[in-house]
Design a protein that fits this description.
Layout (H helix, E strand, L loop, with lengths): L1 H12 L10 E10 L2 E4 L12 E6 L2 E11 L4 E6 L10 E6 L20
Antiparallel strand pairs: 1-2, 1-6, 2-5, 3-4, 3-6, 4-5
C-alpha cells in the first residue's frame, strides 16, 4: 500500500492548480489556429470554459485570454481585447481575472392597459 501511496502523492503534488484566489499556473502553447491557442493545461489545472485569464511572460502582462473549452489536460483559449505575440512552445503564466459582477438589469413594472 505504501508503495502506491508515495508515487500517487508525488504525482498529485506536481499538478498545477489555478485557485479561485488568483494563484498562477504555467501552460505551454502546443498549437496555434488563427486566434485560438491550444494549451497544455486543462480542468486538472483548474481551468474551465468561460474563464477569463491574464497571460504573463516573465512577469510581464501580455493581455487577456478567454477559455473556450477544456479537457482534463488541455484547453483552447482565444484572445480578449488586443492581440499579443505568442509562439508555438511558449510557456505562459496564467492567472484568473476576477470580473466585477454585472449590474442587475433595472426592471420597470408594466402599466396595466385600460379596458376597451
Amino acid at each position: 500500500m505504501r508503495r502506491l501511496l508515495v508515487p500517487l502523492l508525488v504525482a498529485l503534488l506536481g499538478l498545477p492548480v489555478l485557485a479561485q484566489d488568483g494563484s498562477r499556473i504555467e501552460a505551454r502553447v502546443t498549437f496555434i489556429a488563427g486566434q485560438n491557442l491550444y494549451l497544455e493545461a486543462g480542468r486538472d489545472a483548474g481551468l474551465a470554459a468561460n474563464d477569463t485569464l491574464r497571460a504573463f511572460r516573465a512577469d510581464q502582462l501580455l493581455g487577456m485570454l478567454a477559455v473556450i473549452s477544456t479537457t482534463d489536460e488541455r484547453a483552447v483559449v482565444t484572445f480578449v481585447g488586443d492581440l499579443f505575440p505568442v509562439t508555438l512552445g511558449d510557456v505562459l503564466t496564467l492567472e484568473r481575472a476576477v470580473r466585477p459582477p454585472e449590474p442587475e438589469p433595472s426592471v420597470t413594472p408594466a402599466q396595466p392597459t385600460p379596458p376597451v
